[in-house]
Amino acid sequence: MRLVMLMTACVMALSGCSGLGVGVPSTPGAFIVAPQGRTFEPMDTLDPRNAMVYIYRPITRWGYEEVQAPTLFLNSTQLFGLKAGAYEWLELNAGTYDFYARRPLSVLYLKTIFDSKLKVEGGKDYYFRYSETRPLDLTELVANPEDYLQDGPLQQVPPAIALREIADLRLDEPGLYYGNQQEKTPRWAPFYTYSEGDAVQEGDKAADATDKPGLLSRTRSWFASLF
């Protein structure tokens, strides 16, 4: 009975944090549900001044034994879980973000797995590889490894390497546009996400278009994979 009461209190406490974009862990590991989406498909940004970030996780035995997938956050906002054999994408305004992952246990978040400053420039693509058991030795692959973000199991990798590894991985959850909260109306031709004359701003809130109008989420690839 005490355990039930404790778990209930934890759920209520986490629900109270929803204003910060933090919720209950919701992504089961590949041991429970393997990635179901389509294999890798490059995405265009809604706005040419935005950056596209891909995060992928190669297939490993360790990953396929997970019951819950690690959850990624940006500026304290919960994004998505990352299963073994899956990739996710994130469209960002140019800027610098707090980017980190935490390991869940039931309805709680425990250990922080990595915690980095993610700096992106508009018009560029970035690839990040997550592997707890099979990291790459970038000193053997690139001439300037110091220019690539590395933090624990997270490694920024060159496109040539990433595209080989990501080709057969699957999009498991909808990709997200994380942008300027002041943008309230979608712009369809072309997909500009800044007002005319506005400076490029750092993102301040993740959102799915199905939940918050005006903050656009590119989900067509993920939904198409369901049919």
Automatic annotation (TrEMBL):
Q: Which UniProt keywords apply?
A: Signal
Classification via PROSITE patterns: PROKAR_LIPOPROTEIN
Source organism, top-level taxon? Bacteria
What is the species listed in this Swiss-Prot or TrEMBL entry?
Alcanivorax hongdengensis A-11-3
Instruction: List residues of the DUF2846 domain.
Output: 50-135
- Tell me the InterPro entries matching this sequence: DUF2846
What name goes with this protein? DUF2846 domain-containing protein
Indicate the secretion signal residues.
1-20
Q: Which Pfam families match?
A: DUF2846
